[in-house]
């Protein structure tokens, strides 16, 4: 059996279609949803993400602001910028791109963002609301995974979801979302980490296996149950002399072999990747709608 592909491009396109309609309805009321992104320093990967976010905003007809600050920016200067964005009425949502330079306390910056504009859903207020099942926002990457499950027709209720990884950005919120009552959830959830003994004995029990560990092709076919749905969040650059730039992207899952055992799988690239920006856009539109009471 070769697994059915769940492609982020297809799922995100259907969500963008819905967002265009919602943006149109907001514009009819004189509101243009606005997203600001603050980039501190010159991390090349962050520069790429920030450019992609700005481009997508423009494609959707949203207001986009990119603020680039030098590597030498002090914590006080960054807090002042956050305060300015908190008060800017044309900005409905914003984020400070992580990672930040080492001399800046990330937690202090995250905590300074107005929760009603926290479209990354990193503020403890929003994390708490998500955990109790009353979310204003959902964090983009796990929300993207959940949409891929829902829109690919994957049943989650009563299924055993195993999550490999417990980061604040992916693993933990993913677990919090899948254990809730409701659509795309109602699952029995197991979360594993680098201290978990005999990982394969747990992953091979998963009806739905969600992997976010940052270890290239770590999950091999013998670790996967026949017919499981496998979602690979991992994005790892590995050397590849045959590639034009000498490297290529692979996931945390040994795709070529696991796809012969799974019933559905996400590739890397082209799987979860496109969903993250899509859900960020959805959060920004939601923030704008909330502001006008829709
Ligand atoms: P992270 O903060 O480095 O967390 C990795 C997690 O994996 C940790 O909880 C770690 O356990 C666990 N882990 C590592 N080795 C393990 C092992 N051998 N067995 C079991 N668990 C193990 O990474 P992250 O931010 O969650 O990202 C994970 C991957 O997803 C990365 O490749 C990242 O690039 C990718 N990602 C992609 C997107 C996207 O848009 N597609 C978004 C976010 C992240 P400990 O806690 O015990 O260390």
C-alpha Rg, in Å? Answer: 19 Å
Mean pLDDT equals 97
User: Could you spell the SSE succession in H and E letters?
Assistant: EHEHEHEHHHEHEHEEEEHEH
The portion of residues forming beta strands comes to: 15-25%
Number of strands: 11
SS-based class: alpha/beta
End-to-end Cα distance, whole Å, is 46 Å
- Let me know the largest β-sheet: 6 strands, parallel
Bound compounds: NADP nicotinamide-adenine-dinucleotide phosphate
Shape: globular
Q: Order of strands in the sheet with the most strands?
A: 1-11-8-7-5-6
Helical content class: 25-40%
Number of helices: 10
Low-confidence stretches: none
Fold topology:
Elements: E1 4-5, H1 8-28, E2 34-40, H2 44-60, E3 63-69, H3 75-87, E4 93-96, H4 106-112, H5 124-131, H6 140-151, E5 160-164, H7 171-178, E6 188-192, H8 199-203, E7 208-211, E8 229-232, E9 236-239, E10 247-250, H9 255-258, E11 264-265, H10 273-291
Parallel strand pairs: 1-11, 2-3, 2-4, 5-6, 5-7, 7-8, 8-11
Antiparallel strand pairs: 9-10
Helix pairs in contact: 1-10, 6-7, 6-10
The structure holds NADP nicotinamide-adenine-dinucleotide phosphate.
NADP nicotinamide-adenine-dinucleotide phosphate is lined by residues 141, 164-167, 169-171, 192-196, 199, 212-215, 233-236, 272-273, 276.
